[in-house]
Every structure is written in C-alpha cells, then in structure tokens.
C-alpha cells in the first residue's frame, strides 16, 4: 500500500471512552499510511466523524455537522483540493447507507468493527471515486488484523491510556442500542492485550484503563487456551514494569465476580474506583429494563465490595423516566442512592432509541416529569459528590501528574479516586507519581501540595 505523504486527517470524536480509543487506533492506522493528524478540519484531506448513538438526537447532530463540512469541502474544491468525508462509529453502524442517501457529500461510512480496513476503504474512495459503506461485524477480525499490521504502532498520547479488552454486549437492556451497534460480546486474547499494554508502557504510559461495554464480563484466552477473567487479567497486567495504575470500565452488577473483587482488594495497582451502573432503584423498573438484577442484589454487592475495599469511590449511571416509572418507583431510586452513596455519577432522562424494546413500550413518561425527577436526582448526587470530596480534605495519596494546569508552574493529576487534583508543580513533570496532601476541595476538583520529594 502506498503511503500518503503530506496528507492530513482530522478526527472528531463523540461519546464514550471506547470511541476515544477507536479514534486513536484510526489515527495509528492512518499515521502508518503517512497521514499527519491535525486538530481542526480546515486543512484536512480526510475528515472522520467518529459518532456516538447513545444520546438523544445523535443522528440529527451528525447530519448538522455534515452540513457544515459540506461547505468546507466545497471551499477546498474551489482551491483544487479534495476533502474525503467519512462517518464512523455507532451512528454509521445504525444508519448505514441512509447516511449517504441523506447526505451525499459523505464519501465513506464505516462501523466500529471495520477501521482496520481503512487503507483499502480510503483507496476505494479516492482512486475510484466510489461511495463506500462498510458495516461488517464482528470485532475479532479488527483486533487480529491490527495486531498483524506491523506498520501500525500503538502510539501513546499521554501518561494515561485506554485499552479496549472487551467489546459488544449480550445483555440487551431494553433502553440500549449498544448490542445493535457494537455487536455480540467479544473478549480479546490475553497475549494481544499484554503486547499492547507493553507498547504503551514503553511509550511512557503509567496508567491504563481497560475498556469494555461489559468489561467485567471479560473472558479471554491465553496462548494455552486458559481462560482469564477480568480479575486475572488485571493481576497479569499489573506485572508489567512501568504500568503503575490500572482501571476498568464499564462493569455490570451481574458480572462482578470474586476474582475481580479480590484483585481490587489486594492489588495495589488496581485503583479504588468502580463504575457500576444500577440505572434505577425500583425492582419493577429494573425488570422492565431487563437489567437482570434487583435493587437488593446491587445493594448487597456494593456492601460486599466495600467490605473488601473500604475506601472505594463508587460511580454509576441512572436513567429517570423509563416507561412505566411512577413517582413511587422514582422514590425508590432516590432511596437506593441515599443508601449506597456515590462519589460521582451520571444521570439521564430516558429517551427513545428506535429498534430497542423500550421504544415500543406503553406508558412513556411525560418530558416535564422526567425533567423534574432528573433535577431532584442530580441535587442528591451532587451533594454526595461534594461530601466525598470533602472527606478527602487533609488526606494523603499518590497523584499521577497528567498535564500542565492553567496557571504557571501548575500541574494537574488524578487521585486514585479519579478526582482532578491541582498542585504547584515545583519542578516535577507529567508522568511522575507524587505523594500529596489535599488542602482544598470543590465539587469538581481538589487542590493539594506535595508532601515529600520523590
Ligand atoms: N436513554 C437514556 N439514557 C440511556 N443510556 C443508555 N441508553 C439510554 C437511553 N435510551 C444511559 C445508561 C447507560 C449510559 C451509558 O447511558 O445509563 O449506562
Ligand atoms: Fe447497554 Fe445494558 Fe449492555 Fe450496558 S449492559 S451496554 S446498558 S445493553
């Protein structure tokens, strides 16, 4: 395959961390072809919108972005230059050829499991001038193919990196599009993950966040065919020199096994942070959501994890106004939040995703009721977040320094609990892990000072 000297690519990433990972891998593939990465679209020969389908009106937002890019593409044509416009990610998967029908300016549509074939896809678009749509499953081929392409290096882009270990979902929660856009559950082999983690460590990465839509359902094989759970995988990766911190997201309550809890409890490199969505507190709603767990199961599970890991920072996701949710059901969500207590959480109004079970349900909740419930839930969650931060005042912990702050000499890092922490850098550099003491807390970040030189 010919390289493309002096060509430039701009990728706009929407949505979750897995999309951030996917965009980085697309950049890796394109860099190996000679494309330089730029962070504005104006001079780009190739523009990729890596889209997300999880939020309301996601597709509409993509179409209006394409409208803006159409003007840019025409302006470049006047200058005798091309701009290939590509739509990738979950909207591409869900909409397929509809995108090119509605927005003929788009040249290429490719789903989340196909970006290893970008060299061929781009070739087809640029040399034949064809519109290309590629929305194949499954995920296996992508990872195998990327690992085989020797020219594609996993470039590090900072001291903390994402690494996808599991993709897809077989749970089919009634509200969720993920099983349709990302496909069936699939776990990458241990050796492939280990090789990628080593490449990251060699490139200066100190912290890796393992990603999966259902990350704790991870069950991957090593070269001897032995199966590794996520707990075992974390233990295994913790032995890599240079990797000092491991995180993982997003977990499902049904897949929280003892191996994982024990890795969290005993392995110092596994950070005390868990994103474990419950979505709602009423068993009736949970059943309608097809969550496959009750509120009691979740509450007991958190108690068990906290017994093993008392300083756990718990995070979650909530949906208010799921079809059929009554005031009394919603009160049960508030009661669950009061009982469990969160360090941080995301909360959303339910919104219809065509093709999902919940889209056909009767008893859709009126918008104003959803808004009112969301506001009440968020007041409670914000209070809990502030309380969690306040409890850190005077505490000492290690800080991974990630980037310069806004003020001169300031550095920003992450606490073990994933809070942003500002310090006076005092000659220290990003990538270092320094012991700090917290001396100021706000709702969204902390500030601290270094307690002794390392
Ligand atoms: N409506 C509202 N929130 C949703 N989520 C997923 N699908 C929907 C939907 N249709 C939320 C869930 C999930 C998070 C990533 O997004 O809380 O955990
Ligand atoms: Fe969606 Fe449920 Fe799967 Fe999470 S577990 S990705 S919410 S279907």
Please indicate the count of domains: 3
Q: Count of DSSP E strands?
A: 21
Q: Give the CATH architecture of the largest domain.
A: Alpha-Beta Horseshoe
* N-to-C CA distance: 48 Å
| Strand line-up in the sheet with most strands | 2-1-3-4-5-6
- How would a textbook summarize the main sheet? 6 strands, parallel
CATH structural class of the largest domain: Alpha Beta
Low-confidence spans: pLDDT under 50, at least 5 residues?
A: none
Structural class: alpha/beta
- Bound molecule types: 5'-deoxyadenosine, iron/sulfur cluster
DSSP helical segment count: 14
What level of helicity do the residues show? 25-40%
**What is the gyration radius calculated from CA atoms?**
23 Å
CATH topology of the largest domain: pyruvate-formate lyase- activating enzyme
| The CATH homologous superfamily of the largest domain | tm_1862 like domain
Strand content: 15-25%
Instruction: Based on Cα principal axes, name the global outline.
Output: globular
């Amino acid at each position: 395959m010919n390289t493309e000297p002096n060509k430039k690519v701009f990728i706009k990433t929407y949505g979750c961390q897995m999309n951030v990972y996917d965009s980085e891998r697309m950049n890796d593939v394109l860099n190996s072809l000679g494309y330089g990465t730029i962070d504005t679209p104006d001079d780009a020969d190739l523009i990729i919108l890596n889209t997300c389908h999880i939020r309301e009106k996601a597709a509409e937002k993509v179409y209006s972005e394409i409208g803006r890019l159409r003007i840019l593409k025409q302006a470049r044509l006047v200058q005798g230059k091309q701009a290939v416009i590509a739509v990738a990610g979950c909207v591409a998967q869900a909409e397929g050829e509809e995108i090119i029908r509605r927005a003929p300016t788009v040249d290429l549509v490719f789903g989340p499991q196909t970006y290893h074939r970008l060299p061929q896809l781009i070739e087809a678009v640029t040399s034949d001038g064809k519109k290309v749509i590629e929305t194949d499953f499954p995920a296996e081929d992508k990872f195998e193919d990327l690992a085989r392409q020797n020219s594609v290096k996993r470039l590090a882009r900072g001291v903390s990196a994402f690494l996808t270990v599991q993709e897809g979902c077989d749970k089919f929660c009634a509200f969720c599009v993920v099983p349709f856009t990302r496909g069936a559950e699939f776990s990458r082999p241990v050796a492939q993950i280990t090789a990628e983690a080593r490449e990251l460590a060699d490139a200066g990465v100190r912290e890796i966040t393992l990603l999966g839509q259902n990350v704790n359902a991870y069950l991957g094989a090593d070269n001897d065919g032995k199966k590794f759970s996520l707990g075992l995988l974390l233990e295994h990766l913790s032995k890599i020199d240079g990797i000092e911190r491991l995180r993982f997201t997003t977990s499902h309550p049904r897949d929280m096994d003892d191996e994982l809890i024990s890795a969290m409890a005993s392995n110092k490199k596994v950070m005390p942070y868990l994103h474990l969505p419950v979505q709602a507190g009423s068993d009736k709603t949970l059943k309608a959501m097809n969550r496959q767990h009750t509120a009691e199961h979740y509450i007991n599970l958190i108690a068990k994890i906290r017994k093993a890991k008392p300083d756990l920072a718990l995070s979650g996701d909530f949906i208010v106004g799921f079809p059929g949710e009554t005031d009394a059901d919603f009160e049960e969500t508030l009661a669950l939040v009061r009982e469990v207590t969160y360090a941080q959480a995301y909360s959303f109004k339910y919104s219809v995703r065509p093709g999902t079970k919940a889209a056909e349900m009767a008893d859709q909740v009126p918008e104003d009721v959803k808004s009112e419930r969301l506001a009440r839930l968020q007041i409670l969650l914000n209070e809990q977040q502030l309380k969690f931060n306040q409890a850190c005042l005077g505490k000492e912990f290690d800080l991974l320094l990630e980037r310069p702050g806004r003020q001169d000499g300031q550095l920003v890092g992450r606490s073990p609990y994933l809070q942003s922490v500002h310090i006076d850098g005092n000659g220290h550099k990003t990538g270092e892990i320094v012991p700090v003491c917290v001396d100021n807390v706000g709702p969204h970040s902390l500030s601290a000072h270094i307690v002794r030189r390392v």
